[in-house]
């Protein structure tokens, strides 16, 4: 049985700030024990798509980076390039990715260490991992910058996800540590049964140049597998590598729908890919932290963030990625849905109902696939003990300074002299507040 350490999201003191809770869980889980002096420690997180607003705030990352430095480690914040995924993706190259995350608040100066796009400029700098134990993937490609790290803190935002149904540790590890070609692999590009190449294609539904979006479709495919002619769309399925860029457009108008079981098979492949990243870094070298906060129905990889489907659940830490995600899923199921959210629209407001199967996926794909596959392939266990951790006794580790305000600022106040104007402020002596209440 795996241990999952947990603290809720209530916060009313220095020791119970959510940043303090994350650090308390880091210590309780013993993540510091895997960090030796001068070890390169990756902090892996998703830093958000353009205009997404639910992603993990930079302050959590800075606090972890400072913690790793205090233990003698050499931290680096890492992520990887993405597939195009949709029409206007913003993290497909390292260049775009760095621009997007800087806009989201992540730079070397904010996080306190270099940020490395671990699979290189276009996403082909990777390490191949053999996966004979994989459920569907038998090999996978992990970003070099992640595979070569001495250890890793996987800092994951737990929320919904359109492909995996939910996104947590397994998705952050499986999709986020895979290089671009690793992502093509796990999204089953070119797969003979589940790949997009096999999707039902109904070109007669294309309105051709009468469609207001025809020029977008003419320019959507980076492989040149889609062309627009006088007669409408022409798709060369053999040339399709499954990059997903055209998926939403072609599905919306009914020209090409994903093949049967595409999302189920992708969710399974995410767990395989997570195992590849774990193998690349090494046993006992990854500590998992899930922030189950701002639990939007969809991922940080879309360029908007909907209302949370359940209230904040809290912060979780474990050495087991399957157990930590299982604990988060259980907490989400136990929670009531958020009024006015997708949970209400989908009829899953009652405690006891799975939330992500209804709210995260397109077609009711089971939220259990990722952890079930993770357990089957030996990545972890669904059998967990949830251990509620009390706040730290001492708050000094979480303070900006341990010098009280008076002692710290007395000299500056005295030097400026007129912080409180010598004659006092110009104000009414008394007002009628009753009318304002
Ligand atoms: S494939 Fe769909 S979106 Fe594209 S031009 Fe045809 S009808 Fe329009
Ligand atoms: S046809 Fe295939 S390769 Fe081209 S945009 Fe669509 S998914 Fe990508």
Structural description of this entry:
This protein has helices at 18-29, 58-70, 94-103, 108-111, 144-147, 169-174, 180-186, 214-218, 247-252, 262-281, 321-334, 342-345, 356-359, 369-376, 405-416, and strands at 2-7, 40-44, 74-79, 115-117, 126-130, 139-143, 151-157, 159-161, 165-167, 226-229, 232-235, 286-292, 314-318, 384-388. A hairpin with a 3-residue loop joins strand 8 and strand 9. The strands form 4 sheets. It has an 8-stranded mixed sheet with strand order 4-3-2-7-12-13-1-14, sandwiched between helices. A two-stranded antiparallel ribbon has the order 5-6. It folds into 2 domains: 2-189 and 261-388, 3-Layer(aba) Sandwich (Rossmann fold); 200-252, Alpha-Beta Plaits (2-Layer Sandwich). The protein is of the alpha/beta class and 437 residues long. Helix 10 packs across helix 14 (369-376). The chain is 30% helix and 16% strand. The chain is built from 15 helices and 14 strands. One iron/sulfur cluster binds at residues 196, 220-221, 223, 225-226, 240-246.
């Amino acid at each position: 049985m795996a241990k999952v350490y947990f603290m809720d999201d209530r916060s009313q003191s220095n020791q119970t700030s959510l940043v303090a809770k994350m650090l308390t869980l880091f210590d309780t889980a013993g993540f510091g024990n895997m960090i030796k002096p001068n070890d390169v420690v990756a902090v892996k997180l998703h830093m958000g798509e353009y205009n997404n607003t639910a992603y993990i705030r930079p302050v959590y990352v800075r606090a972890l980076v400072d913690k790793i430095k205090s233990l003698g480690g050499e931290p680096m914040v890492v992520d990887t390039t993405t597939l195009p995924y949709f029409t206007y993706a913003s993290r497909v190259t390292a260049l775009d990715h760095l621009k997007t995350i800087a806009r989201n608040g992540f730079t070397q100066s904010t996080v306190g260490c270099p940020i490395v796009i671990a699979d290189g400029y276009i996403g082909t700098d990777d390490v191949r991992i053999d996966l004979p134990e994989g459920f569907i993937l038998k090999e996978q490609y992990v970003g070099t910058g992640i595979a070569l790290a001495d250890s890793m803190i996987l800092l994951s935002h737990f929320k919904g996800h359109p492909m995996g149904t939910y996104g947590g540790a397994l998705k952050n590890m499986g999709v986020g540590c895979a290089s671009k070609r690793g992502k093509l692999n796990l999204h089953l590009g070119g797969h003979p049964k589940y790949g997009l190449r096999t999707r039902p294609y109904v070109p007669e539904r294309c309105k051709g140049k009468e469609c207001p979006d025809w020029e977008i479709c003419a320019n959507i495919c980076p492989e040149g597998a889609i062309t627009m002619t006088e007669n409408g769309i022409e798709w060369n399925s053999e040339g399709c590598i499954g990059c997903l860029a055209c998926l939403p457009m072609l599905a919306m108008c009914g020209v090409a729908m994903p093949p049967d079981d595409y999302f189920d098979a992708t969710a399974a492949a995410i767990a395989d890919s997570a195992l590849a990243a774990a193998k690349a870094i090494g046993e006992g070298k990854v500590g998992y932290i899930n922030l189950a906060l701002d639990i939007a129905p969809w991922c940080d990889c879309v360029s908007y963030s909907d209302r949370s489907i359940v209230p904040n659940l809290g912060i979780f830490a474990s050495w087991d990625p399957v157990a930590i995600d299982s604990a988060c899923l259980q907490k989400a199921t136990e929670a009531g849905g958020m009024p006015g959210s997708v949970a209400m629209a989908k009829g899953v407001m009652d405690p006891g109902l799975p939330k992500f199967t209804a709210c995260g996926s397109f077609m009711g794909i089971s939220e259990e696939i990722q952890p079930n596959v993770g357990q089957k392939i030996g990545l972890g266990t669904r059998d967990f003990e949830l251990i509620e951790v009390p706040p730290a006794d001492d708050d000094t580790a979480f303070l900006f300074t341990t010098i009280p305000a008076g002692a710290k600022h007395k000299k500056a106040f005295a030097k400026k002299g007129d912080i409180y104007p010598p004659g006092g402020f110009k104000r009414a002596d008394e007002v009628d507040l009753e009318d304002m209440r």
